[in-house]
């Protein structure tokens, strides 16, 4: 249980990457007052939390409807997370296109887009939630554990966004990049574990058939 709790926390914390969000948040909302920044951060976290909850409750139904096995989804999740990890290690992580960034700059309320989607509740986060949910079936109230840990990570994200101005100044660009690279290395290991676990089950099914 302890290893699953730690794995879930590390997975969600690294994929959401609240530390890496700090400079992005300052770029988008740095000209606003602190109360306005707090309000945007609160709405972004609440919206992304609702998205994660909805996906956790209905994600498996969607996979069943599309005829996608959880092992195949697990491999796909691992590949996606590995791509994100590589971008983090080389400090080339892009969560939105150039056009989306320009649109975000022109918006007065950036809480839903691009903060909630795709910066917090992005493809990697949604895929991780669904993969972790399949692993949690071995534990009683496993889905509740995942959502509880996700809530903790979102709370940390909210706090770091609220104090992103001070965090960015304290760490500096170099500090943020160093932490992001270390988290990227850890994420790459988690991604490879997802790919290996899913591939082994798929190969066993092929051999037995």
How would you describe what is shown here?
It is a single chain. The protein is mainly alpha-helical and 209 residues long. It has one domain (2-208). It is 85% helix and 0% strand. The protein contains nine helices and no strands. Helix 2 packs across helix 8 (142-162). The radius of gyration is 18 Å and the shape is globular. The two termini are 33 Å apart. The mean pLDDT is 84.
Rg over CA atoms: 18 Å
What is the chain-wise order of helices and strands?
HHHHHHHHH
Structural class: mainly alpha
Any low-confidence stretches, pLDDT <50, length ≥5?
A: none
Helix content: over 70%
Q: Number of helical runs?
A: 9
Provide keyphrases for this structure:
mainly alpha, 85% helix
Summarize the SSE layout with pairings.
Layout: H1 2-16, H2 18-29, H3 34-66, H4 70-89, H5 98-106, H6 111-120, H7 123-135, H8 142-162, H9 164-208
Helix pairs in contact: 1-7, 1-8, 1-9, 2-8, 2-9, 3-6, 3-7, 3-8, 4-7, 4-9
